[in-house]
Amino acid sequence: MSFRRIYKNSLSPGGKFKNRFTSPARLIEKDFLPRISSAPKNASSIEKTYTLETKESPFMINLEDLIIIEQNLSQILDKFNNPNSVLPACEEVYEMTAENTLNQVSLLYRDERTRDAIRYSMVLQAVGISLTHYFISEYSLNHEMALLIKSIIFSIHQGFLILTKFVLSRVPSDNTNTWALKLRQIIKEKKLRKHNIDNTTFLDHYNQLIVNNMKKMCRNFISRTDDPTARCLKLSVLQIIRHKGITISESRSLIEKAFGVKRENSEKLENTLKSPFLPETPNKIYTLVLDLDETLVHYIDTENRGKYLIRPYVNEFLQALEKNFEIVIFTAAIQDYADWILDDLDKNKLITYRLYRHHTVPAGNYFLKDLKKLGRDLSKVIIVDNVAENFQLQRENGILIKSWYEDTNDTALKELQDFLLAIPRNQIQDVRAYLKSTREKMLNGIDC
User: Fold this and answer.
1) Which of 233, 263, 293 is the last residue in one of the domains?
2) Mean of pLDDT values over 38-67
3) How confident is the model at residue 54 (pLDDT cuts 50, 70, 90)?
4) Which CATH number is 364's domain given?
5) Quick one: average pLDDT of 154-167?
6) Which of 62, 157, 337, 344 is surrounded by the fewest CB atoms within 10 Å?
7) Are residues 416 and 351 both part of a single domain?
8) What are the catalytic residues?
């Protein structure tokens, strides 16, 4: 769901379809050749994530996400009078934190006061970013309103720096992780204001400043407008700030409800999922795991309803591979969106299984696809994806394909088809060794 249009799409019959099927926020795309990934073992994509231990269970957090979010918050402050800079920054912050493991940082601490302060700061961040985006995009702000919103963003930024310190406190000081070092340098350069108080008290202080300014905004400005969206926003904001125990997902749902948007929630599915995801007995020797967006299709959002484009040679590719591979679609998209495409795309039922966002492992703003959870012999599993980070847990099984948008002359799947068909033809015993050998030949300039 694009935050850019979140307050424009109502749940009217026309808007409901568009909201339901707007493409989920995708990962940052990179332009790769349609070849097997040859990224070195020390690739920065591995270093971006850091595993944090909690009492409940460990989780991975993407340290680069913290840098990007901080940069966007700084941009909102520095370019406040330039909507063309502020609005995209708001959108990126909101979407990056929507289903980010950053929302689990509070679980690192047993102290309830610290947990509450961290959780509530993430709640207020989402609300503050939403208000900023809406009023800057829809109104010509007077001086007093502009100062009020900027004060909210300043406190959110300060709170986020404190949150970053909480994360870094769990990363050993002698750790050489590039992203951790960059974050420490950012905090040092930003000269976080502090008056000899602990981080929890400091975070509580900025949380309260945000709450006070939001109350003032509701009382002095929103109450005076006839804008129905602004009035709905006021009710949601007041409900959130009066209920300090509200969860991050609940607060986002309230804000989005004010804009007429219903967000799909996969939390219940995530809590009940058990691996292996696939039946115990495979019906083919080899398993081919395929990404969906920008690998097989590309979604386009239009005024009336969304549509998707099909990559050249998709049907031929599926028909050829289905004879020797069980084909699994593994997408970071939500199920409703993916099924809407796949029910239409796969009329011949060539795809054996479908896995969705709730089957992935959240790692910051990435959704990792852990092939171990498939319940298949990894020596017989290949994953094809246009984002290397998605299969970083089993890079040796991965083939990186060029992102596709609308190039009608693209031949990546046709080339890949011939390469993959050689695997069953040659009865390859371990696809990982086969892919490794191919990578090495490519690096040495040998024709594959």
Assistant:
1) 263
2) 59
3) low
4) 3.40.50.1000
5) 93
6) 344
7) yes
8) 291, 293
Phi, psi (5° rounding) for residue 299? -90, 140
Query: Using one digit for the tens of pLDDT, what is the confidence trace for 87-104?
Result: 999 999 998 888 777 788
Mean local confidence (pLDDT), 421-437 = 94
| Structural domain count of the chain | 2
Contact 325, 286 (CB under 8 A): yes
pLDDT for residue 313: 96
Mean pLDDT lowest for which of 50-59, 165-174, 216-225, 235-244?
Answer: 50-59
Buried b (16+ CB within 10 A) or exposed e, 346-373: beeebbbebbbbbbbebbbbbbbbbbeb
In terms of domains, do 290 and 250 share one? Answer: no
Residue 425: helix, strand or coil by DSSP?
helix
Range of the domain at 152: 42-263
pLDDT greater than 50 at residue 360: yes
Question: Which of 24 and 373 is assigned the larger pLDDT?
Answer: 373
